[in-house]
UniProtKB/TrEMBL annotation:
Keyword Transmembrane tagged: yes
Transmembrane segments: 6-24, 36-54, 60-81
Protein name as it appears in the record: Uncharacterized protein
Keyword Transmembrane helix listed: yes
Domain of life (superkingdom): Bacteria
Keywords, sorted A to Z: Membrane, Transmembrane, Transmembrane helix
Amino acid sequence: MTGIFIVLFVVVLALIIGIIIRYTAAAERRGLPPGLLRQISPIAIGLLLFSLALVSDILILAVLGGLSIALGVFMGIKFFWDNGGI
């Protein structure tokens, strides 16, 4: 049963990463500052890891998910700090 969750996790993760990369590139071509959407990727990956950890009871996935979410939040704060706000 855990194998099914891991396969579904990898599929959803690949879809999310693909969507983020596609829309980030399109938004940057239209004038959005580079890197604005890239902090969403670690947050999305972290949420997926955390939800997979809750389903499969694997503690290390929860730890990795929390670290990934923290990285995304840090990248977002750094982006807004470097660019003078919104």
